Amino acid sequence: MRGGEQSETDIYQLSPGEIKQLLLCILKPQQSGRCWLNRRQIDGSLNRNPSGFYDRVWQILERTPSGIIVSGKFLPQQPTLSDMTMYEMNFSLLVEDMLQNIAQPEYRQTVVELLMIVSVILERNPEFEFQERVDLDKLVKEAFNDFQRDQSRLQGAEKQDDMSAFYNTPPLGKRGTCSYLTKAVMSVLLESEVKPSNEDPCSIS
């Protein structure tokens, strides 16, 4: 080992106790000290989803007549909603089947975050629904383009195809990934036809 360098250790030379500690270090969710890119890579690789994730996707489908598509995999509203129930395992497997085409784990995790955002927006705005097929790839791309515009304006960064900086950005905060994803979703919804609602505070009875 030369000065300033650490020797690489073969995993097969580690003791069972050291292997256990290494696995705990890698698999422990939301471990402090990890960058957001690394967190998303690990969570995406392990197919970690937020609590109630599949229920949220079901609720999105209820407001998405033309279905959801990501990485070429399509999840239709029908016959999905008529043939299944929200809580059955077959629906969860169907959602995972839609996500399995995503090659990059960090991209998969970003899509999961996007679906949670879509669900919250629809839950809080009952007058909205998607008129066209929801293309998750397109929404992520629009969010990333908006992120790059801010990076170019604030830091002089050149636009590029590499999304590592976006993946490495915390989800929350003024310029977190959630803000860009939310903006992309709202842009699509505001172009859609708004359904009348009995609870609309702007309506005059």
Helix tally equals: 9
N/C terminus separation = 80 Å
| Helix proportion | 40-55%
Cα-based radius of gyration, to the nearest Å: 20 Å
* Average residue pLDDT: 86
Broad structural category:
mainly alpha
Number of strands: 3
Described by the principal axes of the CA atoms, the overall outline is globular
Sheet with most strands: 3 strands, mixed
Commentary on this structure:
The chain is mainly α and 205 residues long. It has one domain (35-192). The protein contains nine helices and three strands; from the N terminus they run αααββαααβααα. A hairpin with a 2-residue loop joins strand 1 and strand 2. The N and C termini lie far apart (80 Å). Residues 1-6 have low confidence and may be disordered. It is found in: Cell membrane. Pathway: Glycan biosynthesis; glycogen metabolism. Phosphorylase b kinase catalyzes the phosphorylation of serine in certain substrates, including troponin I.
Keywords:
single chain, mainly alpha, 3-stranded mixed sheet, globular, lipoprotein
In short:
The termini are far apart. The protein has 205 residues and is mainly alpha-helical.
Secondary structure topology:
Blueprint: H1 16-27, H2 36-45, H3 53-62, E1 68-70, E2 73-75, H4 80-83, H5 89-99, H6 105-124, E3 134-135, H7 136-155, H8 164-167, H9 177-190
Parallel strand pairs: 1-3
Antiparallel strand pairs: 1-2
Helix pairs in contact: 2-6, 3-6, 6-7, 6-9, 7-9
